[in-house]
Amino acid sequence: MTNTDQPTDQAGLRPTKQRLAVASALAETEGFQSAQEIHDLLGRRGDSVGLATVYRTLQRLAEAGDVDMMRTEDGEAIYRRCSDSHHHHLVCRTCGRTVEVEGPAVERWTSAMAAEHGYADVSHTLEIFGTCRDCQ
Amino acid sequence: MTNTDQPTDQAGLRPTKQRLAVASALAETEGFQSAQEIHDLLGRRGDSVGLATVYRTLQRLAEAGDVDMMRTEDGEAIYRRCSDSHHHHLVCRTCGRTVEVEGPAVERWTSAMAAEHGYADVSHTLEIFGTCRDCQ
DNA sequence: CCATGTTTGACAACGATTCTCATTGCGAGT
DNA sequence: ACTCGCAATGAGAATCGTTGTCAAACATGG
Ligand SMILES: [Zn+2]
Ligand SMILES: [Zn+2]
Ligand SMILES: [Zn+2]
Ligand SMILES: [Zn+2]
């Protein structure tokens, strides 16, 4: 289901069967998934794709900003499709439900802090964790 | 030098020679270090401590909140002694120089976002990266 | 169809972290 | 000080996510 007829803008990469498969796996899943989970999902679904290819594709997508990459508590990389504007995540510690949040407040604060200490070319990472309504 | 005569509050853990060695390695270093770097440092210095022990000790200290743990871009865990109050880090992408920053603004913002979406029991992680004055 | 640069996949190689388990060292109680 | 019980250690093996290798399969422009 949920065909990916749209171009999916893969930033100058060939739209190969494998890359489309990974893209669709991301498209039809709401939360964050590890490369291996995506690999398993594709295998189970029939569109088998090599594990190395899944890793490569996810890296490319993350670099291009087409997906968000964050790390679990134990360092594993997990990915999720997301809007292309800068934003942060509010993640449920129990079920993983994720909400994208944004606002000028943090952006301003981080810039101010950096400027105050003479740091240039600033970026930041911010993740909020909590227990969502359904899991309380 | 810089003896660690203070109790170093190891949260109910036996103050063994090894744990004290790790604590002192953290005490005399300013920036973030990986477990392996600490292990090497101790070896070079004579207070040889098993690698597994270094890992175990750092985990305990991190859980107890006596040191900060964050992850490098590629998922490696790095540790640094730090003040015990809640704060965030402003890290130089080039030389690693780190400044601890804090302020009620972000704390309020994250709480507000979480509340707005019905998330309870909230915590967050925030790291700011930039290029420090000396590295520009 | 052909030449040429991409992409893929099976598998090996890596590197950080964790596990195993026999040995050692505290430390409370005597 | 002596002893018992259990926490702590260390050497090495084992995990496991991730990356490297490289020959074979492909996509694309001419
Ligand atoms: Zn996102
Ligand atoms: Zn939840
Ligand atoms: Zn610097
Ligand atoms: Zn904070």
UniProtKB/TrEMBL annotation, chains A, B:
InterPro entries: FUR (IPR002481), Fur_C (IPR043135), WH-like_DNA-bd_sf (IPR036388), WH_DNA-bd_sf (IPR036390)
Gene Ontology process terms (BP): negative regulation of DNA-templated transcription; regulation of secondary metabolite biosynthetic process
Cofactor: binding details: Binds 1 zinc ion per subunit. Binds 1 Mn(2+) or Fe(2+) ion per subunit.
Cofactor: Zn(2+); Mn(2+); Fe(2+)
Organism of derivation: Nocardioides terrae
Keyword Cytoplasm: yes
Family: Belongs to the Fur family.
Assembly, per entry: Homodimer.
Cellular location(s): Cytoplasm
GO cellular component: cytosol
UniProt KW Cell division keyword: no
Record-listed Zn(2+) binding positions: 92, 95, 132, 135
Protein name, entry field: Fur family transcriptional regulator, ferric uptake regulator
Residues annotated as binding Fe cation: 86, 107, 124
Organism placement in taxonomy: Bacteria, Bacillati, Actinomycetota, Actinomycetes, Propionibacteriales
MF (Gene Ontology): DNA-binding transcription factor activity; transcription cis-regulatory region binding; zinc ion binding
